[in-house]
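Recap from last week: sequence in, structure out.
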Amino acid sequence: MKISKTTFNKTSSWLKRNARSLEVARWEYMCEGASRDRVIHYLSAFQNKDGGFGHGIEPDYWLPESSAIATWTAGKILLEIEAETDRMPHGGIGAKKFRRTGCLIQV
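Predicted structure tokens:
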């Protein structure tokens, strides 16, 4: 998808004002070339000591305990940023290597 630089900048500004820190970090990684470390930092707030994820990582599923859907959501994000398993504080899921999809928006 090709959009103007103005539209891209407006989208970026809106996202940074309104989205959760995790989504902002993902946007910055995928579309602005930022480090994956910020994504991992914010993702780790959703991780439980058992290695799974909860705490509303999936906005429609707010249980604090680890669940399959929350852990799947975290796994999807880890694949998206090409994370390695040893990067998460409590170990658990991750991906050794996955092709970066990149931002689908061209400016």
